[in-house]
Amino acid sequence: MPRTCTICVHPERQAIDAALLAGEGYRNVSERCSVSLGALSRHRDHVAPALAKAREAVEVARADDLLGRVQGLVREADAILREARGDGEGRDPNLALKAIDRLTKLTELFARLAGELREGGTTVNVAILTDSPQWGALRARILDALAPYPEALEAVRRALAG
């Protein structure tokens, strides 16, 4: 019959596990909790699944934060585009084109972060189903954004038709 892990039955097990999951050194935990280094080393196998989950949770939190930041930038660029396309003195075609360019780059970054784009060398391959509602909405938004710029609009229409 295998011996019971002394850390698993230790009265301070939660504190020990928390310290190990936080990356605290075995020597510090050993001295603070009066347990042997060998017991901590053997207990590592019992903590390993939790440690893997904790690391995964940290990675997910970082990814969520990054995606949230990109979404915030998209909202800001979209607001700048709306303002630059406005009527009267607020209208700024050059700024509108810069905002469109930035939105394009942010969309690509967002898709890359979400795993929707695969890169090979310097080529980015995007599969678009032209009969999908998402493509139709994106196409309409692009064409609407280019409406104040007839030459660019026509060039994009030709490119999409080709």
Task: Please provide a written account of the structure.
The protein has 162 residues and is mainly α. Helices cover 69% and strands 4% of the residues. A two-stranded antiparallel sheet has the order 1-2. Helix 3 runs antiparallel to helix 4. The protein is elongated, with a radius of gyration of 27 Å. The model has no long low-confidence stretch (mean pLDDT 80).
Put simply, the count of helices is: 6
Coarse shape = elongated
What can be said about the biggest beta sheet? Answer: 2 strands, antiparallel
Order the strands across the largest sheet as they lie in space: 1-2
Mean pLDDT: 80
Number of strands: 2
Strand content: under 5%
Low-pLDDT runs: none
Over all CA atoms, what is the radius of gyration? 27 Å
Separation of termini?
Answer: 74 Å
Regarding quaternary structure, what we see is: single chain
Write the layout of secondary structure elements.
Layout: H1 13-21, H2 26-33, H3 37-84, H4 93-113, E1 118-120, E2 123-125, H5 133-146, H6 150-161
Antiparallel strand pairs: 1-2
Q: What are the salient characteristics of this protein?
A:
elongated; mainly alpha; 69% helix; 2 strands; 162 residues; two-stranded antiparallel sheet
Entry summary:
The chain is mainly α and 162 residues long.
